[in-house]
TrEMBL record, chains A, B:
This is Rrf2 family protein. The lineage of its organism: Bacteria, Pseudomonadati, Acidobacteriota, Terriglobia, Terriglobales. InterPro entries: TR_Rrf2-type_CS (IPR030489), Tscrpt_reg_Rrf2 (IPR000944), WH-like_DNA-bd_sf (IPR036388), WH_DNA-bd_sf (IPR036390). It comes from Granulicella aggregans. GO terms for molecular function: DNA-binding transcription factor activity. It comes from the Bacteria. GO terms for cellular component: cytosol. PROSITE patterns: HTH_RRF2_1, HTH_RRF2_2.
Length: 165, 165
DNA sequence: CTCAATCCCGACCGTTAAGGTCTGGATTGT
DNA sequence: ACAATCCAGACCTTAACGGTCGGGATTGAG
């Protein structure tokens, strides 16, 4: 249930990476772009993800106005805005499209039993809540999660995604 | 993104239906079962959904302890508990399995780049938030979608879901 | 006892989308 | 001129989803 695609995961990782690269902004360059340009290949190698796939994701993000791109020898991608002004919601939406939980959104608008479905409305509210939740998360929120223990690898904390209840 | 499967949708619809049938409980039968038994076929016809598919969904729900079943001529399904004690989360979980947004849960435990993934932890928190959100929704919340008691709002539309990163 | 109405279980199948690859072309700094 | 990039599609493979089928096990009714 409620599955976030790997593409969106990759996209968020890449954005976080870019935000980190541009992290210590010397506050001496108020114009131009927000962060340094990084090539798709570099980012892909940093995270060991398929380079060509990430390339396409970054292109999508660029088309959505979240990234700016620059071709050429020292080209690459940079954040179009400060990391604090990019929400997880718009990233996910840009990559995965406007799909939502109802599963009743076919290409024809709505599913054929939309007139009999009695839980459509409450589900829409859940949908909105999740949207709000995601909209409240900014890229800048991702960069300082577990940064305090140098040396030790993360993910040592045992139960990764145990999903237990 | 974040797509709820149609099966879960159907399951919720069926549960709501059962809850409605048993709605005006005369409070004179504190024992036995909570609601009247309805056959899978009846429920399927009420909503115009594939009967055989719904049958399987109800079986799953019964196995999960959410419904009780009774074979025989006047058999059918009934809620195993009052509708106010069944959450949307456990329904979805019973039907769609313990899948969650991370998309990094393969059958082998975790995805192979779990050691490089830097956003796993923040994502897990989002996950938990959604889980909490869904856990706060009860079947009884579905039956009075509009114009209900002003005292007991569904707490869904309020957007009071905050996430701490 | 017999029978019909049910629930139960597993196998099966078609469609779709996700994840990933490949090829060719358009920019642009050096 | 050339290499490093970005860009835009056309593919491919696999797995999950949505749905179907048939056979078997219960159980109330007549
Ligand atoms: S089944 Fe389509 S709106 Fe619920
Ligand atoms: S990509 Fe697997 S944990 Fe994020």
């Amino acid at each position: 249930m409620l599955r976030l695609t790997k593409k969106a995961d990759y996209g968020l990782m890449a954005l976080k990476y870019l935000a980190e690269q541009a992290g210590p902004v010397p506050a001496a360059e108020p114009d131009a772009h927000v962060s340094l340009a990084q090539s798709a290949k570099d980012i892909a190698e940093a995270y060991h993800i398929p380079p060509q796939l990430l390339a396409k994701i970054l292109q999508t993000l660029a088309k959505a106005g979240i990234l700016v791109s620059h071709a050429g020898t020292n080209g690459g991608y940079a954040l179009a805005r400060p990391a604090s002004q990019i929400t997880a919601f718009e990233v996910i939406r840009a990559i995965d499209g406007p799909l939502f939980i109802t599963s009743c959104i076919t290409i024809h608008g709505a599913c054929d039993l939309t007139s009999h479905c009695t839980i459509k409305e409450p589900l829409r509210k859940v949908n909105d809540s999740i949207k709000d939740l995601l909209s409240g998360i900014r890229i800048s929120d991702l960069i300082e999660t577990s940064e305090s223990r140098p040396g030790t690898e993360t993910a040592v904390g045992g139960g990764l995604i145990s999903i237990a209840l």
